[in-house]
Amino acid sequence: MNAIAKPAIRPANPRFSSGPCAKRPGWTLDVLAGAFTGRSHRAAAPKARLNEVIERSKAVLGMPAGWRLGIVPASDTGAVEMALWSLLGERGVDVLAWESFSTDWATDIAKQLKLPDVRTLKAEYGRLPDLGAVDWKRDVVFVWNGTTSGVRVPNGDWIAADREGLAICDATSAAFAMDLPWDKLDVVTWSWQKVLGGEAAHGMLALSPRAVARLESYTPAWPMPKIFRMTKGGKLNEGIFKGETINTPSMICVEDAVDGLEWAASVGNLAGLVKRSEANLAAIARFIGNGEEFGFLAEDVATRSCTSICLKVTAPWFTALEADKQAAAAKKLSSMLDKEGVALDAANYRDAPPGLRIWGGATVETSDIEALLPWLSWALAQVKAEFA
């Protein structure tokens, strides 16, 4: 690789973290001025604001009538765990695991809940498990988009319309950026800090009528912590899905979530958000071209994420390095981009293969992606001088 001049153009916003993610364009602290600080979240006005987040989320996503949506503790992790502990155990479970978080769910189901009938369908980073091997007589737990691998399921065609089990989907890096087939899903979870750039600590839990029926007809054999309880006297606690949160929420975060949802509506709701994310993926795909320097970690073009865009280094000098040197070189690469102030928090996830992870969700401007890309080649040239 010949010497490369340092690019002249820098991203206006260098924040490419995969969570918490970039704030929406034009965001300032001023949008939080109306937050109900110092108020009880159970008072009428703050409770109405919480419910506004729920109703706006439904509208932006086009969630079908009959679904419940609630604000729950502990971000997406809390929402997923609520679903797993409350719904599983009635029948066997298939878990799809192809990156870090989906592997965590498999571990929790098998080793913490200790369910007796669990099948884990695994795949290495960059690939999907065999979707055709899923048994829809069983409950099925999966992520829609692998945040740490940049691999997403291509569509919902593999999900049985006449399934007997529940489809439990962690969609935290997919919701608001990908078109989810609600008729093929029963539980969907996400957090505020992903595609709309909200603040952390709050999760969203969406339940289909089938999931509600399971909650009201099945009682798990294990004790249920207070923050997981969604039923009272065998009936769904409807208050959770009208803004009556189980624990105390941050009304500052709530105000920020409303702002993000208002912005989402202004760019065309889900269709507009998807268009923005896909444009970011397309820009990176054009840059990669024939893959002489970088390639997608996702092996199949149909499974490439438009949010957590994971790249591997394909330069021959890099692939010839031993594994430990590859890891060190990739760390140097992301550190250099951070030091230059052109890509903050763009390192690969700690368990993922060496490379970069560039967030391409809807709050990221394509112009910033395009400004960043020449810096990848420049930084890689500097790394080569040290490692090759």
Molecular structure report:
- It is a single chain.
- By secondary structure, the chain is of the alpha/beta class.
- The protein has two domains: 29-265, 3-Layer(aba) Sandwich (Aspartate Aminotransferase, domain 2), CATH 3.40.640.10; 269-387, Aspartate Aminotransferase, domain 1, CATH 3.90.1150.
- Helix content is 34%, strand content 15%.
- It has nine helices and 14 strands.
- It has helices at residues 44-61, 75-87, 100-112, 209-217, 251-266, 269-288, 316-319, 323-339, 366-387, and strands at 68-73, 93-97, 118-122, 139-143, 145-146, 151-152, 167-170, 187-191, 202-207, 231-232, 235-236, 294-296, 308-313, 356-359.
- It has a seven-stranded mixed β-sheet with strand order 1-9-8-7-4-2-3, with helices on both faces.
- Helix 1 runs parallel beside helix 5, helix 6 (269-288) packs parallel to helix 9 (366-387) and helix 8 packs across helix 9.
- The radius of gyration is 21 Å and the shape is globular.
- The N and C termini lie close together (11 Å).
